[in-house]
Specification:
mainly beta; five-stranded antiparallel beta sheet; four-stranded antiparallel beta sheet
Amino acid sequence: MKEIDFLSLKPINQEESILTTSQGADSVNIKGSVLEKQFSLPNGFHLVLTTANSPYDEALYATVIDQHFKVADQVEISSALTPGILENAEAQSEDRLKFWFNKADPYILTVDPKGFIIPRPSDKGSRPFRTIFRKKYLHIH
C-alpha cells in the first residue's frame, strides 16, 4: 500500500462526491465530501478515505476502487452524534493501514486482495444492505 496523490474529489453534496483521476478520464460516485487519504494497492486497486465533513456527526468512508474504476467495496465508520478527525493514517504493509478516527484506540484496516463474502464477526463499520452477497475486500478492526 502506497500513498498517492492521483485522484481528486468533486463534492455533489455533504454525503456524496465524484472521484476522478488526475487526467479526468475516469470517474465514479462515492460517499463522502472530503478526500482525506488515497493509496494504491499492489493488485491495481485504490483505497480512498473520505469524510462527510460534519463536525458533530462525522463519518469516515473507506472505499476500494477496482482496476476498472468501479466501487468494489465500501465501509462506513461512524457513531451517532460523535465527532471524528482522521489522524495518523499510515500504511503498515502492502495490505494493512493503521489510523485513528473517533475513539482512543486505533483502527486497523486490512485489504483482502482475493475478496470474501462473509465479514468477520470482529469487523467494525457498516456496509449498504445491497452489498450483503457481493464480494468484499475490507476488514476493519
